[in-house]
Amino acid sequence: xxxxxxxxxxxxxGRAAEMTLQQMRQIITIADVGSMNExxxxxxxxxxxxSAVVRDVESEAGITIFLRSNRGIKTTPEGEEFISYAxxxxxxxxxxxxxxxxxxxxxxxxxxxxxxxxAVAAFVDLVRxxxxxxxxxxxxxxxxxxxxxxxxxxxxxxxxxxxxxxxRTVLSNMIRENNLEFTALLECDTYVYLWKxxxxxxxxxxxxxxxxxxxxxAFEQGSHSSFYLAxxxxxxxxxxxxxxxxxxxxxxxxxxxxxxxxxxxxxxIEELNGTDYRAVPLAETEKMTIGxxxxxxxxxxxxxxxxxxxxxxxxxQKK
Length: 319
Prior knowledge:
Elements: H1 5-9, H2 21-33, H3 36-43, H4 47-61, E1 66-69, E2 72-75, H5 77-101, E3 107-113, H6 117-130, E4 135-141, H7 144-152, E5 158-163, H8 168-177, E6 180-188, E7 191-195, E8 216-219, E9 242-245, H9 248-257, E10 261-264, H10 270-273, E11 277-281, E12 288-295, H11 302-315
Parallel strand pairs: 3-4, 3-5, 8-9
Antiparallel strand pairs: 1-2, 5-12, 6-12, 7-10, 7-11
Helix pairs in contact: 2-3, 2-4, 2-5, 6-11
């Protein structure tokens, strides 16, 4: 069963389709809250009217979306599929509104990225160049899964993450399933990122065996944790000591306080992070391809193109 925009918007055999954006929004709300009563409260409609909407939509689509019982409602498998398509319709309409109907608002630009200082530096350069009077900006340093989700949900125009030989197949499938595309921007080797006072900071090259007595620091990936979604290379390596953190500031503090380290691209932005940290080549290096995510076939905005240009410049600042 596949629903198309034409199923909702066009006339069929001289009869206007009855399903509307408002009805789809109501169905989605019911599914999200799991209660007809609560959905009616949030939508400011009566429960009988909301029940009538469900019956009309089910009749129009020829399926059962919800099963009702004394315990509440449950979405059927065909209802889950319907709601999935309905969400896509609403997301596309929301994008249409933002691009063409909200003319009185500031132009918006948002980027989501893994924890890369050069991605932040490019964002800073963008804001400095175009100013903030006429624009509304947002940047989200977050988990790998959330980077993909934010771009899919149009919360961000661009997402920044990396692919490697290890994670490429899994992440490429996720990217494709979310109707996104990945464009390579930078090719990097693997580096050890540590505090300048670390005993290994002055080495020309560091091996994994030399790091064994020091804690490896890795960014927490939350409920969607997976070796394939890790931000650091060598995610399947058997570390003797491993500490997971949620933010870059905490990671930098642990580098100083516990002589910790992480594995990175080797790109250090001293303007933002200062001169207290080093990036030393890892002997057992692996290639990283850092690139941008965006919706397939969607043209970049002017701000998006400027940001990618700044990102390429920032990515060239390898120390």
